[in-house]
Structures are given as C-alpha cells and as structure tokens.
Write a structure and sequence with these properties.
By secondary structure, the chain is an all-alpha fold. Helix content is 74%, strand content 0%. It has one domain (38-420): Growth Hormone, Chain: A, CATH 1.20.1250. The chain has helices spanning 14-19, 41-62, 64-70, 76-97, 104-130, 137-166, 170-197, 202-229, 234-254, 259-290, 293-297, 307-326, 335-344, 348-357, 365-389, 399-420. It comes from Oldenlandia corymbosa var. corymbosa.
C-alpha cells in the first residue's frame, strides 16, 4: 500500500504554489513579511484550545468512579464512549456536507457553548436532583444525553480547529495535538489528587466528580476568550489573509462555489488524503479497543487495588503527551513509514489479550503498565505526525477541509474501537 500523490487537478500552478507556500516555522522564516509569533502567544493559544476541546470528554470519563457508584448496573465507560463517538461521527459527516455554508469561527464558538451547557448541567443536576443517591436512572439517561451533547460540541470544535491549524505552519498543529494530550494528563492528575485527598465514599466521589466539571467549565470559558482573540494576532491574521487570497484566486478561476463544484473539491481532497485517513482510523481502532475500557474493567491488581486503573490511565495520558510533543523535536516526514507503523499497532491486541489469558507473568502489573505506556507513546507520536502531514498535501484553501475529513476518519476509528472493545476480550 502506498500513499497516493495529491490529485493533479488540485495542484496550484507554479506561481500560486510559490505565493501560498507555508513555511514550517514562521519565526525562523527569512521572509520579512511574515509576522513573528511574539512571546509564542499563538502557539500557547492553540495549545490551550487543544486542551479545551477534549476536556469535557475527559471530565465525563474520569468521573467514572462516581457514575459507576450511582449506576451500578451499567457499564459506564463503554456506554459513554460509544454514545460520544457515534454522535460525533454523525455530526462530522453533516459538517463536511455543509462546511461550505458555514465558517469555522461560528462552528467553534457554537461548540464551546455546547460544552459549557453540558458541563454545567451535570453538577447542577447532582446538587438539585441526584444528591448522591444510588439508582436514580432518570439522571443516568440525562447524563448519557449530555455525553451525546458533548459529542456534538466535539465535532463542531475539533473538526474546525484541526482544519484551522492545518492552514498554519506545522508548529500550530503540533500545539493543538499536544494540547489534547495535556487535557488527559490534567484530568488524570486531578483524579489522583481527589482520590488521595477525598475519602472514597459517596461524599468523596461526589466532590471529586463535581471538581472535574467545575475545572472543565473554567477552561471552556478561557477557550472562548482566547479563540476570539487569536484572529487578531498578526501571525494568524497573515495566514488568514493568505487563505482569503487563495479562495479569491480559485473563485476567479472556477467561478462561484456551486454544489457540484463543492462535491468535486471534497472528492479531490478525500482522494489526496485517504491513506492518511485510513491510517488514523486504524490507529484509534486499536487504541479504543484497549483504552479506557480494558484498562478500567478487565485488568486487576491485588497490590494496587482501585489505584491500578487510575495509574494505568495516567501512564497512558502522560506518554501520549510525550509522543505528541516529540514531533516538535523530530518529525517523521516519510508518510509511508508513519502509515505502516499505524497498522503495526494491531500487534497490541494479541499482547493485551495475553495479559488476560496468557502466562501468569503477563498478567502482572509490570507488563501491563509497560504496554500501556507504549500504547500511549505510539498513539501520541503517530497522531501528531499524521495530523501535521495531512493538510500540507492539499492547497492552502482546502487545508481546513482536509483537516475536517481527517478528523472524520479519527472519530470513525474511535467509534469503531469503542464498539469492538465490547467484544474482543470475550
């Protein structure tokens, strides 16, 4: 299997290719027209935005101790994962279909508002209705609905943010991707803190869960402010103007964007990035088959007891962040190797299966922990590589579309992995 070259019809002519060339790092470019990212503000903003859009999901999944206590007859981890991913997948398909009729600015702001609403309802419902009582399954269904609402918000924010970062030099995509990993690390350390400080009774679990959601609301509010500031930064404004110029050039060449022209453009983008997309999909099928369901429900430790899944999730998140940060030091530019490595991660499935049914040594804490760290490291690095490389295979004015389509593949992998996780260890 090879990586297809970009569709010839989507290639700019020599003059426009030179005009629209995006340097890898604007701060190191010799072109004096490109503004510098003063104090790395744009990088920091995109990092925080990356942290923000995954924080609602991480808040729900990290509060699993409390939700499992409230609803003991449900498999909370896996239900949340399937609902979140499937809803997000459907919404992404709709966003791609109607992308040309909306702007990323509107989609991202709408998604952030949806996140705030979903995160706000959970602690309010707990204070006024649930009150720590077990078996309030009406509240459980509302909670599942709020998870679905977060799936909608994720589709609006993630697809558009990845698309917007794809229009910028690669360091900003790396910032977004590293931010997603930082979100997991933040919530994991919050969980360790609350588990150590609060008693593991109904009151302690309740206080811990509400803290996750309060932190999530605060970060969402920060993201709203920063996102609306970002376009005013000179470096972001410069690349936005480049995109407008590219769109105007294309409009003069091909005319107004009709429905048929949009379909043709979308098909060309899909054809260009499809192998990157399939690799991203399989990357997350493997990851979601194992994390978090297998780690939280299927492996156990007599020594670490209920700390075991907490430490495993933290290990995964920390190494996911390490992997996503490594591309700032070394970026694998050979797409064939990155794609092949994504498929090679299928080997994790028999290895983890051995941790359940293999020799006694494989069932101990050390092999499972090492595998989990390696799972996070490879997931992080390969995700970052594929996210950085993919938008650069198309013209600047189509980079946002390429980013959204890539996120569609990613969420398809997440949804598929969430479903398969119910069955593969049986």
């Amino acid at each position: 299997m090879g990586v297809t070259d970009p569709n010839p019809e989507s290639q700019p002519d020599a003059e426009s290719a030179t005009t629209l060339l995006i340097p890898k790092n604007p701060s190191s470019s010799s072109d004096p027209k490109i503004p510098k990212d003063s104090f790395h503000l744009a990088y920091i903003i995109y990092f925080i935005l990356g942290t923000g859009y995954l924080l609602p999901w991480n808040a729900f999944i990290t509060a699993v101790d409390y939700f499992s206590y409230l609803y003991p007859d449900t498999s909370v981890d896996r239900v949340f994962a399937i609902v979140y991913m499937v809803v997000g997948l459907i919404c992404l398909i709709l966003i791609i279909a109607f992308e040309h009729k909306s702007t990323s600015f509107v989609r991202i702001n709408a998604g952030l508002v949806v996140f705030v609403v979903a995160l706000l309802v959970v602690p309010l419902m707990d204070v006024w209705y649930v009150k720590g009582k077990v078996g309030m399954y009406a509240a459980y269904y509302v909670t599942v609905f709020l998870v679905a609402l977060c799936g909608i918000g994720d589709a609006l924010v993630q697809g558009s943010l990845i698309g917007a970062a794809g229009e910028l030099p690669e360091r900003y995509m790396q910032a977004v991707v590293a931010g997603t990993a930082a979100s997991g690390v933040l919530v994991s350390f919050l969980r360790i803190f609350t588990k150590a400080v609060y008693p593991q009774d109904a009151h302690g679990l309740r206080s811990s869960a509400n803290l996750y959601f309060i932190v999530g609301i605060a970060v969402m509010a920060l993201c709203m402010v920063l996102y609306n500031i970002a376009p005013k930064l000179p470096v972001i404004s410069y690349y936005n103007e480049l995109k407008i110029q590219a769109l105007n050039d294309e409009k003069r060449e091909k005319g107004d964007l009709t429905k048929d022209l949009w379909k043709s453009t979308l098909w060309n983008v899909f054809g260009t990035i499809k192998w990157y997309g399939f690799a991203t999909c399989i990357l997350y099928v493997v990851t979601l088959c194992i994390f978090p369901g297998f780690i939280t429900e299927d492996v156990h430790s007599l020594v670490l007891k209920d700390w075991y899944p907490v430490l495993l999730i933290t290990s995964y998140n920390v190494f996911d962040l390490v992997g996503k940060s490594l591309t700032s030091l070394y970026l694998l530019e050979d797409a064939k190797i990155a794609i092949g490595a994504s498929y090679a991660r299928l080997l994790f499935l028999p290895l983890y299966y051995g941790c359940l049914h293999g020799p006694q040594f494989f069932r101990t804490e050390i092999p499972v922990t090492l595998l989990t760290c390696l799972l996070g490291l490879t997931n992080g690095y390969l995700t970052s590589v594929l996210m950085i490389l993919t938008p650069k295979t198309v013209q600047l004015q189509h980079a946002e579309t390429a980013g959204i389509v890539l996120v569609l593949f990613l969420v398809l992998g997440l949804a598929t992995g969430s479903i398969v996780s119910w069955f593969w260890v049986i």
